[in-house]
Amino acid sequence: MSHIVNDLLARGDARIVPAPAEAPVRHQVEADRNFGLPTALYGATVAGYLGFLLVVGSAFANPVLAIPMAIFVVFIVAGFGVPAIWTRLAGNTSEPQTLGEFGARGIMTHTGRLAAKDATIQVLILPVLLVIWGLAVAVIAAVVA
Hints:
Strand content: under 5%
Number of strands: 2
Distance between the termini: 73 Å
Largest sheet: 2 strands, antiparallel
Structural class: mainly alpha
Shape: elongated
Strand order of the largest sheet: 1-2
Order of helices and strands: HHHHEEH
Number of helices: 5
């Protein structure tokens, strides 16, 4: 491999450049701990997940399901509660968008700007489908029983 590099250097097709100057070390990193979506959207997501558990827990009411359902509720609350606390840490100067701002500006993603309608659909599609699926399973179980 080194003979190839030496040949390129000898022909003038490559050149050796000096090492770049090192960037100054930053000890304080500016972090935006906010995810850019309105709080109401997160609330609707949590409501969808908890609604699914409510439907399934009610349809298949059994004392054996009490502990697994409680564990799921704890996971959902922790999964959304910890990031909510994280956004309120000291040094976080960003605020979540209001619904009006979200409706007017949408949200910037890695692949480009999304309108509020499109972002809302992406965020709520899974919780809504879970609730619909839970209702369908509950209806099927009621009809079969």
